[in-house]
Amino acid sequence: MQSAEFELKKFLSAQKLKYTAERGEVFREIVRSEGRFDADELLQKLQKDHKRVSRATVYRALDLFVKLGVLRRVCMRDNTSLFESILDWKPNGYLVCMRCGQTQEFEVAGTLDGHLRKVASERGFRPQNHSIELFGYCNECQRASDDRYIL
Question: Is 50 within 8 Å of 28 (Cβ atoms)?
Answer without folding.
Answer: no
